[in-house]
Amino acid sequence: MSSTNTPHSPTHHTSTIGAIGAPSRRNTELALLVFAVVIPVFAYANVGLAINDEVPAGLLSYGLGLGLLAGVGHLVVRKFAPYADPLLLPLATLLNGLGLVAIWRLDQSELLQSIKQAGTAAPRQLLYTALGIALFIAVVIFLKDHRVLQRYTYISMVGALFLLLLPLVPGLGQNIYGAKIWISVAGFSIQPGEFAKIVLAVFFAGYLMVKRDALALASRRFMGLYLPRGRDLGPILVVWAISILILVFETDLGTSLLFFGMFVIMLYVATERTSWIVFGLLMSAAGAVGVASFEPHIQQRVDAWLDPMREYTLSRANEVGHSEQAMQALWAFGSGGTLGTGWGQGHSDLIRFAANSDFILATFGEELGLAGVMALLLLYALIAERGVRTALAARDPFGKLLAIGLSGAFALQVFVVAGGVMGLIPLTGMTMPFLAYGGSSVIANWALIGILLRISDTARRPAPAPAANPDAEMTQVVRPS
Amino acid sequence: MNKPLRRIAIFCGLLVLTLLIRDNWLQYVKADDLKDDEHNRRVAIARYASPRGDIIVDGKAITGHATTDGDFKYKRTYKDGAMWAPVTGYVSQVYGATQLEAIDDGILTGNDDRLFFRNTLDMITGKQKEGGNVVTTLNAAAQKAAYNGLKAQGGKGAVVALEPSTGKILALASFPSYDPSTIAGDGASDGKAWQKLQKKNNPDDPMLNRALREVYPPGSTFKVVTAAAALEHGKYTEADQKTETPLPWIMPGTTTPLKNEGNIPCEDATLRVALQYSCNTVFGKIGADLGNEKMLETAKKFGFTEEQFTPVRSSASVFSDDMNDSQTALSSIGQFNTAATPLQMAMVAAAVANNGTLMKPYMVDELQAPNLDTIEKTDPEEYSKPLSAENAQILQSMMETVVKDGTGKNAQIPGVTVGGKTGTAQHGVENSENPYAWFISYAKQSDNSSPVAVAVVIEDENANRDDISGGGLAAPIAKSVMEAVINSKK
Prior knowledge:
The complex is a heterodimer.
Chain A: H1 12-21, H2 26-52, H3 59-80, H4 88-107, H5 110-114, H6 121-142, H7 153-165, E1 173-176, E2 179-185, E3 188-190, H8 192-217, E4 219-222, E5 225-228, H9 233-250, H10 253-271, H11 274-292, H12 296-306, H13 308-316, H14 325-336, H15 360-393, H16 397-421, H17 439-460, H18 470-478
Antiparallel strand pairs in A: 1-2, 2-3, 4-5
Helix pairs in contact in A: 2-3, 2-4, 3-4, 3-6, 4-6, 4-15, 4-17, 6-17, 7-8, 8-10, 8-16, 8-17, 9-10, 9-11, 10-11, 10-16, 12-13, 13-14, 14-15, 15-16, 15-17, 16-17
Chain B: H1 2-29, H2 31-35, H3 41-47, E1 55-57, E2 60-61, E3 63-67, E4 74-78, H4 81-88, E5 91-92, E6 96-97, H5 99-103, H6 105-109, H7 116-125, E7 133-136, H8 140-153, E8 156-162, E9 169-175, H9 188-197, H10 210-213, H11 223-232, E10 249-250, E11 257-258, H12 271-277, H13 280-301, H14 325-332, H15 342-353, E12 358-359, E13 364-368, E14 374-377, E15 382-384, H16 389-405, E16 417-427, E17 433-444, E18 452-459, H17 470-489
Parallel strand pairs in B: 1-7
Antiparallel strand pairs in B: 1-2, 3-4, 5-6, 7-13, 8-9, 8-18, 10-11, 12-15, 13-14, 16-17, 17-18
Helix pairs in contact in B: 8-17, 11-13, 11-16, 12-16, 13-14
């Protein structure tokens, strides 16, 4: 248990002091938001000038649109979550805005247009962004207290399993380049895994909050590690099994790794037992190697990672099941060099398929160079850092677990996707949060930011919420004020 | 709970740090390798992003450029592509470049280091990058005469014309040829055209540069080299000296007599008469008498056994160094292992015409920057001195007799002194295939300077065997090329 959460009586003294000590930082947020809108607008103008020698016609509406969305988001936060973290909203807006610019830039590629991989992606992405921010606003307005989510622990479990299984439903699921993580509804491709990420985090947080003492304390010490009892291994085995099933049936290493990683992180935080990390690593390694030994799609991804040039050659020779994307992405990064070619002047469209979604980081790599990609990675690091800080500041274990689960998953996702595109690990079917084209990803990640903002608002709010001790509440009620 | 939270924070930090390190590895350490990787299409995109400089003949560009759809912005076009292909080579968005297009690629694309300063200046002033030009030594009229002559003939063949006093290549034609414009782009039609031009699909092998890259047995034209060897090694000192050659002449070490073509006056003929009638016996005996070593020495001085860089590389012509006397005898009449490129035989004629001094053949006069400043100029260079001026003049008088009274009458040009030598080389097992018709010649102006030396070879599968003789098929082409050069000088 942390020091911030030590039981204390909620006296007037603490609340008065708290009110003085915690400025809301809403103006900081507003100032940062201005940058988060202006930077993508300049980038947008830059792309237009580079490609068509003119400021794009949609500049004003794009700028106003993004500004309006960010402004409404800000006002809602100001009203409903005044003490929320001031960085998260601007960071998400900036990434989303830059993603829109990159998607629009790839829309201009004749090559991508000719293979129907781009052309009208940017307006759709702007629509998804609006939907995402609407969901964000809904979360901030209607989720008055994140602890409400605790009530839905087991419903969340069922919901998450449902979402994860959806792509396997015949007729609904889609197999896109080997990975079955999409479903198709009314012409839209949806990646349920992106939503499952959040729902699962809710389930894990609620479950672990209840069980953590049993999991943490009932253990035997062996070789410096606390080994859990056999029956306490149950939950981690179940999650592991589900991850393996995802890997086998949906053949997506990224989603599988993400969920299992998120669980291990939350388990570790809940129990403070390092042994879980060791177990988790061993189990994921065993699972990945085990599945890779018989699943050809995973094998092929690993082969492509080990020797992308060979994969490129095979693809060029029209061998079925091979893709030149990995090598094309590496060339895009290499050709960008330190400072990049500048917006609109690269050739990352050579990646062809998924150039504006899974591989969008390569466009940034080529056109903004090492400097730009490092800046982007640091923006992501900042989001994760603000999430962890929210977890640290949260006063209740559920909030702590949920915040660390969401931000841990966010960081893992960034690592898995960016690492895949940069050839550090095998490619997976996930996308860069906010940057990549794709409704599910944008909408789900805005919801994620909304929940983090809610937790941070609760954490930083001067008048602490009623303590968990019902006796203390009783006392408070009877005391004359 | 906060201790594990902090550790998770560090873990997240490490994840990002790993990504940052990987990114630095990719975009800094490995950046240049990836950027310049030949498979990286960006290399080709940059190459075709600006119009290529031109290859110039007689002040006019024989190349051009066209804009294309797709990511390659410009592609090469050629004017009279088939005629000039042996000079230009090709540059294709898919199949790379050859010959001048490849050798002077740096100048033509503008990427040459010598253009660096200019490029940087252009980049600052926002001017589009341009390629420089390659100015050739070729003579458009001569080239046209050569190509059209071959085309009219219809068989495979090649023509090379040189300016004897400088080594400038005036004509370089090969037939059948191909239009490099058809394979310059990256479209489906370019791919089809390319496939059609490949030797395996086209037995005529139109992409073979016969003027530089094919070696043919030179046949009787090689007798000029043998005569030069006889004079240079002091075996004879005059054209009209009896050669004391018996008829029939039995090749040393054998019982086989060397045959002449037809009933010609070769018994004890003079050099002049022997060349005039193309006596195998006389020149075979000279070769056998001089021996392999001395014959090889002279042949080498004319350029045999070495590749020539014009700067487009030519194949090395062959004169063996390990032959017995009878083999040397056969080699000395241009048979057995002896084989020469058309360029080589033009060099032989040019050396004789230039009073014994052989100039190094070249086809690039100068390289120009985009603003037409000269970047590099080629100066004529002496290659060797295969024979003395006196001996060269003796040989000239003999070759002039060939055209005036002998087998080369078809090359006569009114008012111009022409010296030449015909050749009909047999090839194939037991000489079963059609012979090659050769003609080498030079023209001399009234001041005794020679503006042009030519070599023509024709391999004709369709023609009647008897019709094929250097004088009949090849000499008229040589004549028209020489006339074209002389007329263009007026």
